[in-house]
Specification:
mainly beta, 7-stranded antiparallel beta sheet, 5-stranded antiparallel beta sheet, 4 helices, 34% strand
Length: 234
């Protein structure tokens, strides 16, 4: 009697021969992410307002006002300042609502926005330094999923999802009840050391408002030299 054993194991995708006319699955990046061309299909890069060059962050937008953001290759640990305000639609329109001194870092397939601990210092001795590093750690503000690797070598994330749909990370109760599905991308500009974003949407009371962000790099050494305080200053 002849017994034939049939294998139920599915061969790996790489070993499957695709007949003519069938499309092979797109290759993924080294990190297992989908290719940039697939994720950014229909998007165009926003040209920098200075000499037509790529700006601080590379911005990509499509005809549906959706925004993708690519960080620069050396983003990890680079200090940035994020300032944000409700630019229209409320009585205090145009007054800066808040700011963050933060930096991006990567953990697996997530980008994490971290606020360094600047409120506590140590005396400099070894025991003080060890206790400081153990107790006064940095603070995670938010995290966002990495969609792909950009053509400039940096991670790409969904800017609309973070700065519009999850605007409560920055504006808190000011955006409670806002209708993000009616939002439009009013501004997406990238310069050599900063980007400017603005979203127009319906706020809780029904009136239109504008959420504005300014994100800029912070040089480690600006050359600033403080002067001796004058007792005549209050």
């Amino acid at each position: 009697m002849l017994v034939i054993a049939l294998s139920t194991m599915t061969p790996p995708v790489d070993s499957i021969a695709f007949p003519m006319g069938m499309v092979e699955p797109p290759e993924k990046t080294e990190d297992g992410l989908p290719p940039f061309d697939e994720v950014a299909d229909g998007y165009e890069a926003v040209v920098s307002s200075v000499d037509g060059e790529t700006g601080f962050y590379t911005l990509y937008r499509n005809d549906k006002d959706h925004l993708l953001i690519e960080l620069p290759a050396g983003f990890d640990g680079q200090p940035i300042l994020i300032a944000y305000t409700v630019a229209s639609g409320i009585g205090q329109a145009g007054v800066q609502l808040g700011d963050m001194y933060v930096f991006w870092t990567r953990i697996h397939d997530q980008l994490v926005l971290v606020e360094p601990n600047l409120g506590t210092r140590n005396t400099g001795d070894s025991q003080s330094q060890q206790g400081y590093e153990r107790v006064f750690t940095d603070k995670v503000i938010l995290d966002v999923k990495i969609l792909t690797e950009g053509p400039n070598g940096g991670p790409v994330f969904d800017g609309t999802s973070l700065f519009l749909n999850d605007a409560s990370h920055f504006f808190g109760w000011q955006v409670s009840g806002a209708q993000t599905k009616l939002a439009t991308l009013e501004k997406a500009k990238s310069f050599s050391s900063n980007i400017e974003l603005a979203f127009k949407l319906q706020l809780r009371g029904g009136q239109f408002g504008t959420l504005s962000y300014s994100i800029r790099s912070i040089p480690e050494d600006s050359g600033y030299e403080p002067r001796i305080s004058d007792h005549r200053i209050g």
